[in-house]
């Protein structure tokens, strides 16, 4: 199993540009989530999904959009990038009945 | 919602010393308390967890303790080694919730 994969590893955007951060898992996990990690702020939940077709907002959802059309994929869309969205983004997945979160390697995003 | 406080934010020790990281939580219904280790450039990975029906759990050089009355839990690392250097996150969640609330993280530095 590849586990949780994220692409790209690093991205530079200009203010106002849009992009999609990709996340995929091959463990047949029902739960998937997106976090952002900023210095001194820990891991903050952006959006999460409890299964295909079901998504919900986390602590910091503004400026981000998600969809879950398949069990495997959970893309995160930045609609109009802002410098405040400069961060490291982690995708995680988990299985019903097991509370362990499995994290991807992260995407480092710089918005100029 | 749940609020998890974690201290200290940075911890510097000499190789061979012990390290203790402390967390408090606010939701008395939380009953699952995992600890994650994040090595440089990687995603967090579960290292140990504890449930509310247990007061202490050990795994080789690491141990977690839980005080439900005081709503705090701690991570103890004995005989620290340079490879223990990382960021450690505590988290808390209710049973049936697969989306935990994370603390802000502790950067542990072990000096050879």
List the helices and strands and how they pair.
The complex is a heterodimer of chains A (112) and B (112).
Chain A: E1 4-7, E2 10-13, E3 19-25, E4 31-38, E5 42-51, E6 54-57, E7 64-66, E8 76-78, E9 87-95, E10 98-103, E11 107-111
Parallel strand pairs in A: 2-11
Antiparallel strand pairs in A: 1-3, 3-8, 4-5, 4-9, 5-6, 7-8, 9-10, 9-11
Chain B: E1 4-7, E2 10-14, E3 19-25, E4 30-38, E5 45-51, E6 56-59, E7 62-67, E8 72-77, E9 86-94, E10 101-102, E11 106-111
Parallel strand pairs in B: 2-11
Antiparallel strand pairs in B: 1-3, 3-8, 4-5, 4-9, 6-7, 7-8, 9-10, 9-11
- Helix run count of chain B: 0
Instruction: Give the largest interface pair and sizes.
Output: A-B, 24 and 21 residues
Mean pLDDT across residues of chain A = 95
Give the H and E element order of chain A: EEEEEEEEEEE
Number of strands of chain B: 11
Question: What coarse outline of chain B follows from CA principal-axis ratios?
Answer: globular
Multimerization status:
heterodimer
Poorly predicted segments of chain A? none
Q: How much helix is in the residues of chain A?
A: under 10%
Shape verdict of chain A: globular
Query: What is the radius of gyration of chain B computed over CA atoms, rounded to a whole number of angstroms?
Result: 13 Å
What is the count of β-strands of chain A? Answer: 11
The share of residues in extended strands of chain A comes to: over 45%
The gyration radius over C-alpha positions of chain A equals: 13 Å
Q: Please give the largest β-sheet of chain A.
A: 7 strands, mixed
What is the N-to-C order of secondary-structure elements of chain B (H for helix, E for strand)? EEEEEEEEEEE
Q: How far apart lie the N and C ends of chain B?
A: 41 Å
């Amino acid at each position: 199993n590849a586990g949780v994969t994220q692409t790209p590893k690093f991205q530079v955007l200009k203010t106002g540009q849009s992009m999609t951060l990709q996340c995929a898992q091959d463990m047949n996990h029902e739960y998937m989530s997106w976090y952002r990690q900023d210095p001194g702020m820990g891991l903050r939940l952006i959006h999460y999904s409890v299964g295909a077709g079901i998504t919900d907002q986390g602590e910091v959802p503004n400026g981000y959009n998600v969809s879950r059309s398949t069990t495997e994929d959970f893309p995160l869309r930045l609609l109009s990038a802002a410098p405040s969205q400069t961060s490291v983004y982690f995708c995680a997945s988990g299985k019903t009945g097991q509370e362990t979160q499995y994290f991807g390697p992260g995407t480092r995003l710089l918005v100029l | 919602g749940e609020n998890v406080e974690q201290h200290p934010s940075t911890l510097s020790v000499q190789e061979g010393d012990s390290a203790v990281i402390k967390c408090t939580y606010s939701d008395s219904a939380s009953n699952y308390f995992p600890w994650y280790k994040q090595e440089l450039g990687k995603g967090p990975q579960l290292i140990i967890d504890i449930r509310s029906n247990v007061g202490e759990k050990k795994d080789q050089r690491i141990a977690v303790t839980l005080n439900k009355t005081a709503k705090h839990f701690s991570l103890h690392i004995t005989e620290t080694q340079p490879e223990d250097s990382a960021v450690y996150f505590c988290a808390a969640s209710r049973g049936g919730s697969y989306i935990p609330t994370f603390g802000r993280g502790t950067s542990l530095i072990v000096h050879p």
